[in-house]
Automatic annotation (TrEMBL), chain A:
PROSITE patterns according to UniProt: ABC_TRANSPORTER_2
Source organism phylogeny: Bacteria, Pseudomonadati, Bacteroidota, Sphingobacteriia, Sphingobacteriales
GO terms assigned for molecular function: ABC-type transporter activity; ATP binding; ATP hydrolysis activity
Domain ABC transporter: 49-269
Full protein name: ATP-binding cassette domain-containing protein
Similarity comment: family membership: Belongs to the ABC transporter superfamily.
Annotated organism of origin: Pedobacter alluvionis
Key words, A-Z: ATP-binding, Nucleotide-binding, Transport
TrEMBL record, chain B:
Stated name of the protein: Transport permease protein
Taxonomic lineage from the root: Bacteria, Pseudomonadati, Bacteroidota, Sphingobacteriia, Sphingobacteriales
Residues covered by the ABC transmembrane type-2 domain: 54-282
GO process terms (BP): lipopolysaccharide transport
Keywords from the named record: Cell inner membrane, Cell membrane, Membrane, Transmembrane, Transmembrane helix, Transport
Length: 423, 290
């Protein structure tokens, strides 16, 4: 089984930043002229990595730069990295949706890629018709779908609705059906982008189970991209960390890969993060900085958090706070300044808010907090689930208040409760 | 579910490369996805009349009304000759054939934009999409041909003067030519509109203008008589010989010549080859620029 399923060699992909379309004819002519003289493409010359924060002279960006790796048959590989690290680009190239700029990938076996669930679903058509259409788009022959129809319907649990147009489906049913079609595709390689973010917890579990069955039970190769480290850990046996378009770490031990990813990213190590607040376009509040005093705390220390920002327009519904996550990306809690500060609205100008996570609350482990700012009941200015302005910290030092158990106990929390003897 | 030994099958090897050969049209892949073609055509047909009362009748309404309007305006008001044929019959012949070509052209030319969502998420041979457009429109064309035949039957029994000529046997060739011409020109435009949107605006009224440069509302003989110096524009429009042959075949009037039909075939072939090559080239990266 140690055959190579996918071999990626010197793979690069360049994207053009800014407007496409204006002034491109002259540019296209220039490139074409350079090419026929056998010279290098003048717009692809500058070889720099893709750091989204630094401005550069060139408006060409390398989303992937000289990537090399091999994947063995039957491996379940987790591809992890921050947003913009090149994960999706890699999957797009692997699924042949877009072509690489340089380099090549070779492999064997049919690829089924699931970059999105329900691609090509037509709202007017019935569930049954859509199963056939979607299956065919994914590359199945009609008789193959026919053979698996019962299984697909059963997995999706939509038997009663099979002949109803999918526009009448609940969003959950829609996703279930779409995933079911893709999961039953007979392919040697399965590529899954973060599509499991949709659907309820039970269904997510079912999908993960199905994918696990695919990789472990049937020896198919699975490539899985997710920000949910728990899912990656559960499903994959090896992993690749991408950073700014480069492979920064790669190992056959998935726990090691996840650990490395959560600890070695230089930005994630720092306890202070300057935020480019302008990207959150709104008239009320611009975040400037979020920090903790340290990156590593013991169980008995409080984690002090401060948020710096500028109020542009006083608003009594403004809520500033954060969302706390564990290393697997599970949301543990939300906290907002309005929980304890009762002042009606902040005046215009810079403000600094501080709070702290109480000691003896979080168990040993790695955590991150993500900024969350909202106009209450109306909209997010910064959605904590959907931004990269995070800081990471870790808690260590064991369960020191017990004489019986000084090591880390299982569980996310390490709260001490009061015990009383009543009889 | 699956047999555990899926590797027992012969495995396809593949490579994804930065450069591709221009002439590799991947037709074997298109063949492998033929079921998708059928399902897409079915989808287009079924979703067209879902939740309508008249259903497939809508296919009739557009050519019928256009014929009526043309008969009044061009036939009666402007008094343009129809080669002695009954006016509605003359116009409907032109409209039916022209509509098929025009639909193929306009739909194909926006194929990348219309399907950017699907194309950006899943791979299948992109050529399937324009092919499905041409075939879907063929269904529609078939329905409209039925209407034309009904009209022909009506005029036949009321004793109007027209006669079917031997050229009717060229009908399959003409349909194929219209389909491929629309497909070829459409693919060229579609490939260019992914980057330069300007063409998308042009195509809307361009097709309309082109209709007036084709012998849809007048016979070629009339154009040559009235504008002998400019008639070459109409003559060298590849759609003109196609429509003329169509009329000659079904109604017995029209300027048919083997030479002009061969000319239309050559133009079609060139456009088709160029179109397929450009389409295949653009297909690889269009997701980044669309």
């Amino acid at each position: 089984m140690s055959d190579i399923a996918i071999k990626v060699e010197n793979l690069s992909k360049a994207y053009q930043l800014g407007q496409i379309g204006t002034g491109t004819i002259s540019r296209d002519l220039e490139r074409w002229y350079a090419r026929i003289r056998g010279k290098e493409d003048p717009f692809l010359r500058i070889g720099e990595s893709n750091d989204q924060n630094t401005k550069s002279a060139s408006d060409i960006v390398w989303s992937l730069k000289d990537i090399n790796f091999e994947i063995e048959q039957g491996d379940a590989v987790g591809i992890i990295g921050r947003n913009g690290a090149g994960k999706s680009t890699l999957l797009k190239i692997l699924s042949k949706v877009t072509a690489p700029t340089t380099g090549k990938i070779s492999g064997k076996g049919r690829i089924a890629s699931l970059l999105e669930v329900g691609t090509g679903f037509h709202p007017e058509l019935s569930g049954r018709e859509n199963i056939f259409l979607n299956g065919a788009i994914l590359g199945m022959r009609k008789k193959e779908i026919q053979r698996k129809l019962d299984e697909i319907v059963d997995f999706a649990g939509i038997e009663r609705y099979l002949d109803t147009p999918v526009k009448r489906y609940s969003s959950g049913m829609y996703v279930r059906l779409a995933f079911a079609v893709a999961a039953h595709l007979e392919s040697e390689i399965l590529i899954v982008d973060e599509v499991l973010a949709v659907g309820d917890a039970e269904f997510q579990k079912k999908c993960l189970g199905k994918m696990g069955e695919v990789s472990k039970g049937q020896g198919r190769t699975v490539l899985f991209v997710s920000h949910n480290m728990g899912a990656v850990k559960q499903l994959c046996n090896s992993g690749i960390v991408l950073k700014n378009g480069l492979v920064s770490y790669k190992s056959d031990n998935i726990s090691e890969v996840i650990n490395k990813y959560l600890t070695t990213d230089d930005r994630e190590l720092s306890n202070s993060l300057n935020i480019d607040g302008k990207k959150y376009k709104n008239q009320y509040f611009i975040p400037l900085m979020i920090n903790t005093k340290k990156t590593s705390y013991s169980l008995k220390e409080e984690v002090e958090i401060s948020i710096l920002g500028e109020v542009l327009e006083p608003n009594s519904s403004l809520q500033i706070g954060f969302s706390l996550y564990d290393a697997d990306g599970n949301n543990l809690l939300w906290s907002f300044h309005t929980d304890t500060i009762t002042q009606n609205s902040f005046p215009k100008g810079k403000i600094k808010l501080t709070t702290s996570i109480t000691p003896y609350l979080l168990n040993e482990g790695k955590y991150y907090i993500s900024l969350g700012v909202a106009i209450f009941n109306q909209f997010w200015i910064i959605d904590p689930d959907n931004n990269n302005d995070r800081i990471y910290f870790e808690i260590n030092g064991g369960f020191d208040f017990s004489n019986f158990w000084t090591e880390k106990r299982p569980g996310i929390l390490a709260k001490k409760f009061n015990w009383k003897l009543e009889k | 579910m699956d047999s555990p030994n899926i590797y027992g099958k012969e495995e396809q090897k593949w490579t994804i490369d930065a450069k591709s050969s221009l002439l590799n049209l991947k037709l074997n892949e298109v063949w492998a996805y033929r079921d998708l073609l059928v399902l897409l055509v079915r989808r287009d047909f079924v979703s067209f009349y879902k939740q309508t009362i008249l259903g497939p009748l809508w296919f009739f309404i557009q050519p019928l009304f256009t014929t009526i309007i043309f008969t009044f305006i061009f036939g009666n008001l402007a008094g343009i000759s129809t080669d002695g044929l009954p006016k509605p019959l003359f116009y409907m012949a032109g409209i039916t054939a022209w509509n098929y070509f025009a639909d193929c052209l306009t739909k194909t030319s926006s194929v990348f934009r219309d399907n950017a969502g699907i194309f950006g998420k899943v791979y299948f041979p992109r050529l399937i999409m324009p092919l499905s457009i041409v075939v879907s429109n063929l269904v529609r064309f078939g329905v409209q041909m039925l209407l034309f035949l009904i009209l022909m039957a009506y005029y036949y029994f009321t004793g109007a003067s027209f006669n079917i000529s031997w050229a009717i046997s060229l009908f399959p060739v003409i349909v194929l030519l219209m389909a491929l011409l629309g497909l070829g020109a459409g693919m060229i435009i579609s490939a260019m509109t992914t980057k330069y949107r300007d063409l998308a605006f042009l195509i809307g009224f361009g097709v309309q203008l082109l209709m007036y440069a084709t012998t849809v509302i007048y016979p070629l003989s009339e154009a040559i008589k009235k504008y002998p110096t400019y008639a070459w524009i109409i003559k060298y429009n590849p759609m003109t010989p196609i429509i003329e042959t169509f009329r000659y075949g079904f109604l017995g009037e029209g300027s048919f010549s083997w030479f002009s039909l061969a000319y239309a075939m050559i133009v079609t072939l060139i456009l088709l080859i160029v179109g397929t090559i450009i389409f295949n080239k653009v297909e690889r990266n269009f997701v980044d620029t669309v």
